[in-house]
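Re: export button greyed out
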Amino acid sequence: MTMKGKQLHFAVLLTGLLALSWPALATDGAPPAPEFRLANRAGGEMSLSGLRGQVVMINFWASWCGPCRQEFPALDEMYRKYKPMGFAMVGINVESEKADAERFLGARPVSFPILFDPDNHVSGSYGVSAMPTTVLVDRKGHIRWQHRAYKPGDEAEYIAQIRAMLREPS
Amino acid sequence: MIPSRALFAALALLAFSGCSHVEPWVKPYEREKLADPIMAWDRDPVASSYILHVYESREGARGAAGGAGGGCGCN
Amino acid sequence: MQLTRTIRSIAITLAAGWLFCPAPSIAGVLPEDRADLMYHYYDGGGVQIDGPSVLVRKKFKEKYAVNASYYVDMVSSASIDVITTASPYKEERTQYGLGFEYLRGKVTYAASFSNSKENDYDADTASFSISQDMFGDLTTVQLFFSRGKDDVTRRGDDVFSEKVDRHIYGIDVSQIVSKKLILGASWETIAEEGFLNNPYRQVRYVDAVPLGYSYEPERYPHTRTGNALALRARYYLPYRAALQGDYRWYNDTWGIDANTLEIAYTQPIGDRLMFDVHFRYYMQGGADFYSDLYPRANSQNFLARDKELATMDSQTLGFGLGYEFKVPRVEFIQKASVNLKYDFMRFNYDDFRDLRPTGYAPGTEPLYSFDANVIRLFFSGWF
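Workaround output, generated via the alternate export path:
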Protein backbone atom coordinates (compact mmCIF):
# COMPACT_ATOMS: atom_id res chain seq x y z
CA MET A 1 0.00 0.00 0.00
CA THR A 2 1.24 3.50 -0.80
CA MET A 3 1.97 6.11 1.87
CA LYS A 4 -1.21 8.04 0.95
CA GLY A 5 -3.19 4.81 0.94
CA LYS A 6 -1.90 3.95 4.42
CA GLN A 7 -2.80 7.41 5.72
CA LEU A 8 -6.32 7.17 4.26
CA HIS A 9 -6.74 3.69 5.69
CA PHE A 10 -5.70 4.95 9.10
CA ALA A 11 -7.99 8.01 8.93
CA VAL A 12 -10.97 5.82 8.05
CA LEU A 13 -10.14 3.43 10.90
CA LEU A 14 -9.84 6.29 13.39
CA THR A 15 -13.11 7.92 12.24
CA GLY A 16 -14.84 4.57 12.53
CA LEU A 17 -13.54 4.10 16.06
CA LEU A 18 -14.65 7.60 16.99
CA ALA A 19 -18.16 7.07 15.61
CA LEU A 20 -18.43 3.79 17.48
CA SER A 21 -17.45 5.29 20.78
CA TRP A 22 -19.23 8.66 20.69
CA PRO A 23 -21.41 9.08 23.77
CA ALA A 24 -25.06 8.22 23.21
CA LEU A 25 -27.21 11.35 23.09
CA ALA A 26 -29.73 11.69 25.88
CA THR A 27 -33.14 10.36 24.86
CA ASP A 28 -35.86 12.98 25.07
CA GLY A 29 -39.43 12.67 26.22
CA ALA A 30 -40.63 12.57 29.82
CA PRO A 31 -41.17 8.96 30.89
CA PRO A 32 -43.36 8.23 33.92
CA ALA A 33 -41.34 7.84 37.11
CA PRO A 34 -41.34 4.22 38.32
CA GLU A 35 -43.50 3.73 41.41
CA PHE A 36 -41.87 2.74 44.69
CA ARG A 37 -42.91 2.05 48.28
CA LEU A 38 -40.05 2.03 50.77
CA ALA A 39 -39.54 2.01 54.54
CA ASN A 40 -39.23 5.51 55.99
CA ARG A 41 -36.56 6.19 58.61
CA ALA A 42 -39.12 8.25 60.55
CA GLY A 43 -41.46 5.25 60.64
CA GLY A 44 -43.97 3.68 58.30
CA GLU A 45 -43.58 3.70 54.54
CA MET A 46 -43.61 6.28 51.78
CA SER A 47 -44.67 5.86 48.16
CA LEU A 48 -44.15 8.00 45.09
CA SER A 49 -47.84 7.95 44.21
CA GLY A 50 -48.53 9.51 47.62
CA LEU A 51 -46.54 12.56 46.47
CA ARG A 52 -48.46 13.05 43.17
CA GLY A 53 -49.25 16.74 42.60
CA GLN A 54 -45.97 17.94 44.08
CA VAL A 55 -42.60 18.41 42.41
CA VAL A 56 -40.47 15.53 43.73
CA MET A 57 -36.70 15.28 44.00
CA ILE A 58 -35.37 11.77 44.50
CA ASN A 59 -31.75 11.62 45.68
CA PHE A 60 -29.98 8.24 45.68
CA TRP A 61 -27.17 8.36 48.25
CA ALA A 62 -24.86 6.28 50.45
CA SER A 63 -22.79 7.14 53.53
CA TRP A 64 -19.65 5.80 51.82
CA CYS A 65 -20.01 8.21 48.90
CA GLY A 66 -18.03 11.45 49.31
CA PRO A 67 -19.95 13.61 46.81
CA CYS A 68 -23.28 12.38 48.34
CA ARG A 69 -22.20 13.65 51.77
CA GLN A 70 -21.08 16.93 50.20
CA GLU A 71 -24.44 17.39 48.52
CA PHE A 72 -26.63 16.91 51.62
CA PRO A 73 -26.44 20.42 53.14
CA ALA A 74 -27.44 21.95 49.79
CA LEU A 75 -30.36 19.50 49.45
CA ASP A 76 -31.52 20.25 52.98
CA GLU A 77 -31.55 23.97 52.30
CA MET A 78 -33.49 23.42 49.05
CA TYR A 79 -36.07 21.31 50.89
CA ARG A 80 -36.67 23.86 53.65
CA LYS A 81 -37.06 26.71 51.17
CA TYR A 82 -39.38 25.12 48.59
CA LYS A 83 -41.42 22.71 50.69
CA PRO A 84 -44.21 25.28 51.34
CA MET A 85 -44.60 25.71 47.56
CA GLY A 86 -45.37 22.05 46.89
CA PHE A 87 -41.88 20.58 46.72
CA ALA A 88 -41.14 17.12 48.13
CA MET A 89 -37.75 15.44 48.54
CA VAL A 90 -36.77 11.90 49.43
CA GLY A 91 -33.26 10.65 50.12
CA ILE A 92 -33.12 6.97 49.15
CA ASN A 93 -30.26 5.22 50.90
CA VAL A 94 -28.88 2.34 48.81
CA GLU A 95 -26.82 0.54 51.46
CA SER A 96 -27.56 -3.08 52.31
CA GLU A 97 -27.49 -2.35 56.06
CA LYS A 98 -28.74 0.69 57.97
CA ALA A 99 -25.97 1.05 60.57
CA ASP A 100 -23.59 3.31 58.59
CA ALA A 101 -26.42 5.51 57.30
CA GLU A 102 -27.86 5.90 60.84
CA ARG A 103 -24.43 6.86 62.17
CA PHE A 104 -23.97 9.46 59.42
CA LEU A 105 -27.44 10.98 59.93
CA GLY A 106 -26.99 10.98 63.70
CA ALA A 107 -23.96 13.24 63.29
CA ARG A 108 -25.43 15.36 60.47
CA PRO A 109 -29.23 15.26 60.49
CA VAL A 110 -31.34 16.50 57.59
CA SER A 111 -34.99 17.51 57.55
CA PHE A 112 -36.15 15.66 54.41
CA PRO A 113 -37.44 12.05 54.59
CA ILE A 114 -34.89 9.25 54.32
CA LEU A 115 -36.04 5.97 52.77
CA PHE A 116 -34.19 2.66 52.64
CA ASP A 117 -33.70 0.59 49.47
CA PRO A 118 -31.50 -2.24 50.80
CA ASP A 119 -32.29 -4.66 47.95
CA ASN A 120 -31.58 -1.97 45.35
CA HIS A 121 -34.83 -2.68 43.44
CA VAL A 122 -35.68 1.00 43.19
CA SER A 123 -32.09 1.91 42.22
CA GLY A 124 -32.34 -0.65 39.48
CA SER A 125 -35.74 0.54 38.21
CA TYR A 126 -34.43 4.11 38.00
CA GLY A 127 -31.29 2.94 36.20
CA VAL A 128 -28.99 4.59 38.71
CA SER A 129 -25.61 4.74 36.93
CA ALA A 130 -23.63 7.07 39.18
CA MET A 131 -23.42 7.98 42.85
CA PRO A 132 -25.10 10.24 43.70
CA THR A 133 -28.03 10.36 41.29
CA THR A 134 -30.71 13.04 41.61
CA VAL A 135 -34.00 12.61 39.74
CA LEU A 136 -36.55 15.41 39.33
CA VAL A 137 -40.18 14.37 38.86
CA ASP A 138 -42.88 16.88 37.87
CA ARG A 139 -46.37 17.32 39.35
CA LYS A 140 -47.81 14.83 36.85
CA GLY A 141 -45.35 12.10 37.87
CA HIS A 142 -42.98 12.23 34.89
CA ILE A 143 -39.18 12.20 35.10
CA ARG A 144 -37.94 15.50 33.69
CA TRP A 145 -34.27 15.60 34.75
CA GLN A 146 -31.75 13.01 35.85
CA HIS A 147 -28.51 14.34 37.31
CA ARG A 148 -25.63 11.93 37.60
CA ALA A 149 -22.80 12.81 39.99
CA TYR A 150 -22.39 15.97 42.06
CA LYS A 151 -19.88 18.82 42.09
CA PRO A 152 -20.24 21.83 44.38
CA GLY A 153 -22.25 24.38 42.40
CA ASP A 154 -24.58 21.86 40.70
CA GLU A 155 -27.35 22.86 43.13
CA ALA A 156 -27.83 26.10 41.18
CA GLU A 157 -29.03 24.03 38.22
CA TYR A 158 -31.35 21.95 40.42
CA ILE A 159 -32.93 25.11 41.87
CA ALA A 160 -33.58 26.58 38.42
CA GLN A 161 -35.30 23.34 37.33
CA ILE A 162 -37.33 23.05 40.54
CA ARG A 163 -38.61 26.62 40.23
CA ALA A 164 -39.63 26.03 36.62
CA MET A 165 -41.54 22.85 37.55
CA LEU A 166 -43.21 24.50 40.57
CA ARG A 167 -44.81 27.01 38.19
CA GLU A 168 -46.49 24.20 36.23
CA PRO A 169 -50.04 23.08 36.97
CA SER A 170 -50.60 19.70 38.62
CA MET B 1 3.54 -11.67 18.15
CA ILE B 2 0.58 -9.28 17.83
CA PRO B 3 1.21 -6.92 14.87
CA SER B 4 1.85 -3.44 16.26
CA ARG B 5 -0.83 -1.79 14.12
CA ALA B 6 -3.56 -4.09 15.50
CA LEU B 7 -2.34 -3.41 19.03
CA PHE B 8 -2.32 0.31 18.24
CA ALA B 9 -5.93 0.15 16.99
CA ALA B 10 -7.08 -1.90 19.98
CA LEU B 11 -5.54 0.59 22.38
CA ALA B 12 -7.02 3.53 20.45
CA LEU B 13 -10.43 1.89 20.81
CA LEU B 14 -9.75 1.44 24.50
CA ALA B 15 -8.84 5.11 24.80
CA PHE B 16 -11.88 6.42 22.94
CA SER B 17 -14.19 3.94 24.62
CA GLY B 18 -13.79 5.95 27.79
CA CYS B 19 -16.22 8.30 26.10
CA SER B 20 -18.98 5.75 25.71
CA HIS B 21 -21.22 4.27 28.34
CA VAL B 22 -20.81 0.59 29.27
CA GLU B 23 -23.12 -1.35 31.59
CA PRO B 24 -21.08 -2.34 34.65
CA TRP B 25 -21.75 -5.66 36.37
CA VAL B 26 -21.10 -4.04 39.72
CA LYS B 27 -23.51 -1.10 39.82
CA PRO B 28 -22.42 2.23 41.31
CA TYR B 29 -24.81 1.69 44.23
CA GLU B 30 -23.31 -1.75 44.92
CA ARG B 31 -19.80 -0.45 45.67
CA GLU B 32 -20.28 -0.25 49.42
CA LYS B 33 -17.57 -2.78 50.27
CA LEU B 34 -15.16 -1.59 47.59
CA ALA B 35 -15.54 1.98 48.89
CA ASP B 36 -14.60 0.89 52.42
CA PRO B 37 -11.20 2.42 53.31
CA ILE B 38 -9.86 -1.05 54.20
CA MET B 39 -10.22 -2.02 50.51
CA ALA B 40 -7.90 0.71 49.28
CA TRP B 41 -4.70 -0.58 47.68
CA ASP B 42 -2.68 2.02 49.56
CA ARG B 43 -4.23 3.40 52.73
CA ASP B 44 -1.15 5.23 54.02
CA PRO B 45 1.09 6.42 51.19
CA VAL B 46 3.73 7.93 53.50
CA ALA B 47 4.23 4.56 55.22
CA SER B 48 4.11 2.38 52.10
CA SER B 49 6.55 4.55 50.12
CA TYR B 50 9.03 4.25 52.98
CA ILE B 51 8.91 0.46 53.24
CA LEU B 52 9.23 0.24 49.45
CA HIS B 53 12.34 2.37 49.70
CA VAL B 54 13.72 -0.01 52.37
CA TYR B 55 13.21 -3.00 50.04
CA GLU B 56 14.58 -1.28 46.93
CA SER B 57 17.78 -0.14 48.62
CA ARG B 58 18.60 -3.65 49.78
CA GLU B 59 17.36 -5.78 46.92
CA GLY B 60 18.19 -5.99 43.24
CA ALA B 61 14.58 -5.84 41.99
CA ARG B 62 12.68 -2.60 41.53
CA GLY B 63 9.32 -1.45 40.27
CA ALA B 64 5.69 -2.40 39.61
CA ALA B 65 4.49 -1.30 43.03
CA GLY B 66 1.31 -0.04 41.40
CA GLY B 67 -2.10 0.77 42.78
CA ALA B 68 -4.65 3.11 41.25
CA GLY B 69 -8.33 2.21 40.96
CA GLY B 70 -11.05 0.68 43.09
CA GLY B 71 -12.82 2.82 45.64
CA CYS B 72 -16.28 4.29 45.51
CA GLY B 73 -16.46 5.03 41.78
CA CYS B 74 -18.46 8.14 42.63
CA ASN B 75 -19.09 11.00 40.22
CA MET C 1 14.98 0.45 21.49
CA GLN C 2 11.96 -1.00 19.66
CA LEU C 3 10.04 -1.68 22.87
CA THR C 4 10.57 1.90 24.06
CA ARG C 5 9.33 3.34 20.75
CA THR C 6 6.26 1.10 20.83
CA ILE C 7 5.43 2.09 24.41
CA ARG C 8 5.94 5.74 23.54
CA SER C 9 3.57 5.59 20.53
CA ILE C 10 0.97 3.74 22.60
CA ALA C 11 1.23 6.39 25.29
CA ILE C 12 0.81 9.20 22.75
CA THR C 13 -2.23 7.48 21.17
CA LEU C 14 -3.90 7.02 24.53
CA ALA C 15 -3.08 10.55 25.63
CA ALA C 16 -4.56 11.92 22.38
CA GLY C 17 -7.65 9.79 22.84
CA TRP C 18 -8.07 11.02 26.35
CA LEU C 19 -7.58 14.67 25.47
CA PHE C 20 -9.86 14.45 22.46
CA CYS C 21 -12.73 12.78 24.29
CA PRO C 22 -15.19 15.50 25.36
CA ALA C 23 -15.31 15.86 29.11
CA PRO C 24 -18.59 14.23 30.15
CA SER C 25 -20.77 15.56 32.92
CA ILE C 26 -19.76 12.55 34.96
CA ALA C 27 -16.36 12.88 36.63
CA GLY C 28 -14.14 10.96 39.02
CA VAL C 29 -13.11 11.95 42.54
CA LEU C 30 -9.70 13.13 43.77
CA PRO C 31 -8.36 11.62 47.01
CA GLU C 32 -9.14 13.40 50.29
CA ASP C 33 -7.06 16.23 51.75
CA ARG C 34 -4.65 14.94 54.34
CA ALA C 35 -1.35 15.52 56.10
CA ASP C 36 0.95 12.79 57.41
CA LEU C 37 3.89 13.15 59.75
CA MET C 38 6.05 10.06 60.23
CA TYR C 39 9.13 9.05 62.14
CA HIS C 40 10.97 6.17 60.44
CA TYR C 41 13.65 3.98 61.97
CA TYR C 42 15.77 1.19 60.51
CA ASP C 43 18.32 -0.87 62.38
CA GLY C 44 20.00 -3.83 60.70
CA GLY C 45 23.33 -5.18 59.54
CA GLY C 46 25.24 -2.54 61.45
CA VAL C 47 23.33 0.33 59.88
CA GLN C 48 20.97 2.70 61.68
CA ILE C 49 18.89 5.11 59.67
CA ASP C 50 16.14 7.29 61.04
CA GLY C 51 14.40 10.53 60.29
CA PRO C 52 11.17 12.34 59.54
CA SER C 53 8.83 12.01 56.57
CA VAL C 54 6.10 14.57 55.90
CA LEU C 55 3.40 14.45 53.24
CA VAL C 56 0.65 17.00 52.66
CA ARG C 57 -2.03 17.00 49.97
CA LYS C 58 -4.84 19.44 49.24
CA LYS C 59 -7.43 19.71 46.49
CA PHE C 60 -9.16 22.78 45.06
CA LYS C 61 -12.62 22.96 43.44
CA GLU C 62 -12.64 19.13 43.17
CA LYS C 63 -10.49 19.52 40.05
CA TYR C 64 -6.94 20.35 41.07
CA ALA C 65 -4.72 18.86 43.75
CA VAL C 66 -1.26 19.65 45.05
CA ASN C 67 0.99 17.49 47.20
CA ALA C 68 4.32 18.20 48.85
CA SER C 69 6.74 15.93 50.68
CA TYR C 70 9.85 16.21 52.81
CA TYR C 71 11.99 13.27 53.84
CA VAL C 72 15.30 12.85 55.66
CA ASP C 73 17.55 9.83 56.21
CA MET C 74 20.11 10.25 58.97
CA VAL C 75 22.52 7.39 58.40
CA SER C 76 24.95 5.90 60.87
CA SER C 77 26.69 3.17 59.00
CA ALA C 78 28.99 0.43 60.18
CA SER C 79 27.69 -2.08 57.66
CA ILE C 80 29.63 -5.15 56.62
CA ASP C 81 30.94 -3.43 53.47
CA VAL C 82 32.06 -0.47 55.49
CA ILE C 83 33.65 -2.55 58.28
CA THR C 84 35.71 -4.67 55.92
CA THR C 85 36.87 -2.04 53.46
CA ALA C 86 36.39 1.38 55.08
CA SER C 87 35.47 3.03 58.35
CA PRO C 88 32.08 3.80 59.96
CA TYR C 89 30.49 7.03 58.84
CA LYS C 90 27.53 9.27 59.41
CA GLU C 91 25.66 11.05 56.69
CA GLU C 92 22.37 12.67 55.88
CA ARG C 93 20.11 12.50 52.81
CA THR C 94 17.27 14.98 52.24
CA GLN C 95 14.50 14.61 49.69
CA TYR C 96 11.87 17.12 48.61
CA GLY C 97 8.90 16.39 46.39
CA LEU C 98 6.13 18.40 44.75
CA GLY C 99 3.22 17.05 42.74
CA PHE C 100 0.18 18.34 40.85
CA GLU C 101 -3.00 16.63 39.72
CA TYR C 102 -5.75 17.74 37.35
CA LEU C 103 -9.03 15.87 37.11
CA ARG C 104 -11.05 16.28 33.92
CA GLY C 105 -14.03 13.98 33.60
CA LYS C 106 -12.79 10.47 34.27
CA VAL C 107 -9.14 11.28 33.57
CA THR C 108 -6.52 12.37 36.09
CA TYR C 109 -3.34 14.00 34.80
CA ALA C 110 -0.48 14.12 37.28
CA ALA C 111 3.03 15.56 37.27
CA SER C 112 5.56 15.37 40.10
CA PHE C 113 9.12 16.43 40.75
CA SER C 114 11.57 15.39 43.39
CA ASN C 115 15.11 16.11 44.42
CA SER C 116 17.25 13.97 46.70
CA LYS C 117 20.53 15.28 48.02
CA GLU C 118 23.37 13.85 50.08
CA ASN C 119 27.02 14.82 50.20
CA ASP C 120 28.03 12.55 47.32
CA TYR C 121 24.79 11.92 45.40
CA ASP C 122 22.25 14.28 43.89
CA ALA C 123 19.17 12.92 42.15
CA ASP C 124 16.44 14.80 40.27
CA THR C 125 13.30 13.05 39.08
CA ALA C 126 10.31 14.20 37.01
CA SER C 127 7.28 11.93 36.64
CA PHE C 128 4.06 12.13 34.63
CA SER C 129 1.01 9.95 34.62
CA ILE C 130 -2.43 9.73 33.04
CA SER C 131 -5.10 7.68 34.71
CA GLN C 132 -8.60 6.90 33.44
CA ASP C 133 -11.65 5.16 34.88
CA MET C 134 -13.55 3.24 32.25
CA PHE C 135 -16.15 0.53 31.61
CA GLY C 136 -18.58 1.81 34.21
CA ASP C 137 -15.73 2.76 36.59
CA LEU C 138 -14.82 -0.88 37.04
CA THR C 139 -11.49 -0.52 35.28
CA THR C 140 -8.76 2.00 35.93
CA VAL C 141 -5.79 2.25 33.59
CA GLN C 142 -2.75 4.34 34.42
CA LEU C 143 0.24 5.08 32.23
CA PHE C 144 3.29 6.62 33.80
CA PHE C 145 6.62 7.90 32.71
CA SER C 146 9.53 9.07 34.81
CA ARG C 147 12.87 10.64 33.97
CA GLY C 148 15.75 10.81 36.41
CA LYS C 149 19.14 12.44 36.31
CA ASP C 150 21.68 11.71 39.02
CA ASP C 151 25.05 13.35 39.78
CA VAL C 152 27.54 11.06 41.47
CA THR C 153 30.58 12.42 43.28
CA ARG C 154 33.07 10.94 45.71
CA ARG C 155 33.94 12.14 49.21
CA GLY C 156 37.54 13.29 49.41
CA ASP C 157 37.91 13.39 45.61
CA ASP C 158 37.24 16.76 44.00
CA VAL C 159 37.87 15.51 40.49
CA PHE C 160 35.42 12.57 40.43
CA SER C 161 32.07 13.42 38.81
CA GLU C 162 29.74 11.03 37.00
CA LYS C 163 26.13 10.91 35.88
CA VAL C 164 23.20 8.52 35.67
CA ASP C 165 20.29 8.90 33.26
CA ARG C 166 17.12 6.98 34.05
CA HIS C 167 13.89 6.36 32.10
CA ILE C 168 10.97 4.53 33.64
CA TYR C 169 7.81 3.51 31.75
CA GLY C 170 4.91 1.73 33.29
CA ILE C 171 1.29 0.74 32.99
CA ASP C 172 -1.04 -0.16 35.81
CA VAL C 173 -4.48 -1.72 35.41
CA SER C 174 -7.02 -2.14 38.18
CA GLN C 175 -10.15 -4.20 37.63
CA ILE C 176 -13.15 -4.62 39.87
CA VAL C 177 -14.34 -8.19 39.46
CA SER C 178 -17.18 -8.36 41.96
CA LYS C 179 -18.65 -6.41 44.90
CA LYS C 180 -15.85 -7.83 47.06
CA LEU C 181 -12.89 -8.44 44.77
CA ILE C 182 -10.51 -6.16 42.95
CA LEU C 183 -7.54 -7.27 40.84
CA GLY C 184 -4.51 -5.31 39.71
CA ALA C 185 -1.64 -5.76 37.31
CA SER C 186 1.42 -3.55 36.75
CA TRP C 187 4.24 -3.58 34.28
CA GLU C 188 7.29 -1.38 34.63
CA THR C 189 10.47 -1.00 32.61
CA ILE C 190 13.44 0.79 34.13
CA ALA C 191 16.28 1.78 31.83
CA GLU C 192 19.44 3.29 33.33
CA GLU C 193 22.60 4.53 31.74
CA GLY C 194 25.77 5.96 33.27
CA PHE C 195 27.81 5.36 36.40
CA LEU C 196 25.72 2.64 38.03
CA ASN C 197 28.08 1.37 40.68
CA ASN C 198 29.30 2.73 43.98
CA PRO C 199 32.53 4.79 43.94
CA TYR C 200 33.72 3.32 47.26
CA ARG C 201 32.95 -0.37 46.94
CA GLN C 202 35.59 -2.99 46.20
CA VAL C 203 35.63 -6.59 44.99
CA ARG C 204 38.14 -9.19 46.20
CA TYR C 205 40.31 -11.61 44.31
CA VAL C 206 42.61 -14.47 45.29
CA ASP C 207 46.10 -13.13 45.89
CA ALA C 208 49.39 -14.39 47.28
CA VAL C 209 49.28 -12.18 50.38
CA PRO C 210 48.94 -13.17 54.06
CA LEU C 211 45.18 -12.44 54.01
CA GLY C 212 44.76 -14.67 50.95
CA TYR C 213 42.90 -12.03 48.95
CA SER C 214 43.25 -8.43 47.81
CA TYR C 215 40.82 -5.71 46.78
CA GLU C 216 40.21 -3.81 43.54
CA PRO C 217 37.43 -1.35 42.64
CA GLU C 218 34.14 -2.73 41.32
CA ARG C 219 33.32 -2.22 37.63
CA TYR C 220 29.72 -2.31 36.33
CA PRO C 221 28.22 -2.10 32.83
CA HIS C 222 27.15 1.38 31.75
CA THR C 223 23.55 0.33 31.13
CA ARG C 224 20.94 -1.63 33.00
CA THR C 225 17.39 -2.34 31.83
CA GLY C 226 14.96 -4.14 34.10
CA ASN C 227 11.36 -5.28 33.71
CA ALA C 228 8.89 -5.98 36.48
CA LEU C 229 5.44 -7.52 36.26
CA ALA C 230 3.21 -7.59 39.32
CA LEU C 231 -0.21 -9.14 39.91
CA ARG C 232 -2.33 -8.43 42.93
CA ALA C 233 -5.75 -9.16 44.37
CA ARG C 234 -7.66 -7.69 47.28
CA TYR C 235 -10.69 -9.41 48.76
CA TYR C 236 -13.32 -8.20 51.24
CA LEU C 237 -14.06 -10.76 53.94
CA PRO C 238 -17.70 -10.86 55.16
CA TYR C 239 -16.98 -9.91 58.79
CA ARG C 240 -15.29 -6.70 57.59
CA ALA C 241 -11.63 -7.44 56.93
CA ALA C 242 -9.45 -7.40 53.83
CA LEU C 243 -7.00 -9.94 52.46
CA GLN C 244 -4.45 -9.10 49.78
CA GLY C 245 -2.02 -11.22 47.77
CA ASP C 246 0.80 -9.85 45.61
CA TYR C 247 3.22 -11.51 43.26
CA ARG C 248 6.00 -9.74 41.36
CA TRP C 249 8.42 -11.10 38.78
CA TYR C 250 11.55 -9.14 37.88
CA ASN C 251 14.46 -9.59 35.56
CA ASP C 252 17.10 -7.36 34.04
CA THR C 253 20.04 -7.18 31.67
CA TRP C 254 22.49 -7.85 34.48
CA GLY C 255 21.01 -11.33 34.84
CA ILE C 256 19.13 -10.65 38.07
CA ASP C 257 15.94 -12.72 38.33
CA ALA C 258 13.70 -12.08 41.27
CA ASN C 259 10.37 -13.25 42.61
CA THR C 260 8.39 -11.55 45.35
CA LEU C 261 5.37 -12.95 47.13
CA GLU C 262 3.42 -11.05 49.75
CA ILE C 263 0.22 -11.58 51.67
CA ALA C 264 -1.41 -8.96 53.85
CA TYR C 265 -4.41 -8.94 56.15
CA THR C 266 -6.27 -5.89 57.49
CA GLN C 267 -8.72 -6.19 60.37
CA PRO C 268 -10.62 -3.27 61.87
CA ILE C 269 -11.36 -3.73 65.58
CA GLY C 270 -14.40 -1.79 66.75
CA ASP C 271 -14.87 1.73 65.42
CA ARG C 272 -11.42 3.16 66.02
CA LEU C 273 -8.71 0.49 65.80
CA MET C 274 -7.14 -0.99 62.67
CA PHE C 275 -4.82 -3.98 62.73
CA ASP C 276 -2.56 -5.06 59.87
CA VAL C 277 -0.27 -8.04 59.44
CA HIS C 278 1.78 -8.96 56.40
CA PHE C 279 4.37 -11.50 55.32
CA ARG C 280 6.69 -10.99 52.38
CA TYR C 281 9.07 -13.46 50.77
CA TYR C 282 11.68 -12.30 48.28
CA MET C 283 14.29 -14.28 46.38
CA GLN C 284 16.73 -13.27 43.73
CA GLY C 285 19.33 -14.91 41.49
CA GLY C 286 22.49 -12.83 41.44
CA ALA C 287 23.93 -10.72 38.63
CA ASP C 288 25.88 -12.56 35.91
CA PHE C 289 29.11 -10.74 36.70
CA TYR C 290 28.80 -10.98 40.49
CA SER C 291 31.31 -12.94 42.53
CA ASP C 292 32.25 -13.03 46.18
CA LEU C 293 35.85 -13.94 45.29
CA TYR C 294 37.44 -13.60 41.85
CA PRO C 295 40.30 -15.95 40.89
CA ARG C 296 42.75 -13.13 40.09
CA ALA C 297 42.94 -9.38 39.56
CA ASN C 298 40.99 -7.96 36.60
CA SER C 299 39.58 -11.41 35.74
CA GLN C 300 36.44 -10.11 33.95
CA ASN C 301 35.12 -7.06 32.13
CA PHE C 302 32.65 -6.43 34.92
CA LEU C 303 33.26 -7.02 38.61
CA ALA C 304 30.73 -6.80 41.47
CA ARG C 305 30.69 -7.83 45.09
CA ASP C 306 27.67 -5.75 46.15
CA LYS C 307 25.47 -8.02 48.27
CA GLU C 308 22.46 -6.32 46.70
CA LEU C 309 23.41 -8.12 43.46
CA ALA C 310 24.12 -11.49 45.12
CA THR C 311 21.97 -14.62 45.12
CA MET C 312 19.87 -14.00 48.19
CA ASP C 313 16.47 -14.22 49.80
CA SER C 314 14.68 -12.19 52.42
CA GLN C 315 11.61 -12.60 54.59
CA THR C 316 9.64 -9.82 56.22
CA LEU C 317 6.98 -10.15 58.88
CA GLY C 318 5.21 -6.95 59.83
CA PHE C 319 2.44 -5.76 62.16
CA GLY C 320 0.60 -2.49 62.33
CA LEU C 321 -1.90 -0.89 64.67
CA GLY C 322 -3.76 2.32 64.03
CA TYR C 323 -6.10 4.34 66.23
CA GLU C 324 -8.55 6.82 64.79
CA PHE C 325 -9.84 9.77 66.79
CA LYS C 326 -11.43 13.18 66.53
CA VAL C 327 -9.28 16.13 67.63
CA PRO C 328 -11.25 17.98 70.35
CA ARG C 329 -12.03 21.64 69.65
CA VAL C 330 -10.29 21.62 66.28
CA GLU C 331 -13.13 21.58 63.71
CA PHE C 332 -10.70 22.03 60.82
CA ILE C 333 -9.40 18.46 61.24
CA GLN C 334 -12.27 16.09 60.38
CA LYS C 335 -10.52 13.01 61.69
CA ALA C 336 -7.04 11.97 62.78
CA SER C 337 -5.14 8.77 63.46
CA VAL C 338 -1.97 7.60 65.14
CA ASN C 339 -0.27 4.49 63.77
CA LEU C 340 2.61 2.22 64.66
CA LYS C 341 4.05 -0.30 62.22
CA TYR C 342 6.83 -2.73 63.04
CA ASP C 343 8.59 -4.97 60.53
CA PHE C 344 11.15 -7.68 61.17
CA MET C 345 13.33 -8.55 58.16
CA ARG C 346 15.80 -11.31 57.63
CA PHE C 347 18.31 -11.35 54.75
CA ASN C 348 20.18 -14.54 53.74
CA TYR C 349 22.97 -14.59 51.17
CA ASP C 350 23.97 -17.68 49.18
CA ASP C 351 27.13 -16.27 47.66
CA PHE C 352 28.21 -13.34 49.83
CA ARG C 353 30.51 -14.22 52.66
CA ASP C 354 31.05 -12.61 56.04
CA LEU C 355 34.72 -11.56 56.15
CA ARG C 356 34.73 -10.45 59.79
CA PRO C 357 35.48 -13.84 61.42
CA THR C 358 39.14 -14.86 61.10
CA GLY C 359 40.80 -18.21 60.49
CA TYR C 360 38.97 -19.15 57.28
CA ALA C 361 40.57 -19.87 53.92
CA PRO C 362 39.34 -17.36 51.32
CA GLY C 363 36.09 -18.61 49.83
CA THR C 364 35.15 -20.73 52.86
CA GLU C 365 34.07 -17.97 55.23
CA PRO C 366 30.53 -18.34 56.58
CA LEU C 367 27.76 -17.02 54.36
CA TYR C 368 26.44 -13.66 55.51
CA SER C 369 22.97 -13.02 56.88
CA PHE C 370 21.47 -10.29 59.02
CA ASP C 371 18.24 -9.16 60.65
CA ALA C 372 16.69 -5.74 60.59
CA ASN C 373 14.05 -3.97 62.67
CA VAL C 374 11.99 -1.31 60.96
CA ILE C 375 9.65 1.03 62.80
CA ARG C 376 7.18 3.53 61.35
CA LEU C 377 5.34 5.82 63.74
CA PHE C 378 3.01 8.28 62.08
CA PHE C 379 0.15 10.71 62.63
CA SER C 380 -2.40 11.42 59.94
CA GLY C 381 -4.96 14.19 59.79
CA TRP C 382 -7.79 14.61 57.28
CA PHE C 383 -9.13 18.12 56.66
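The domain at 30-166 of chain A is CATH 3.40.30.10 (Glutaredoxin). The button fix ships in the next patch.
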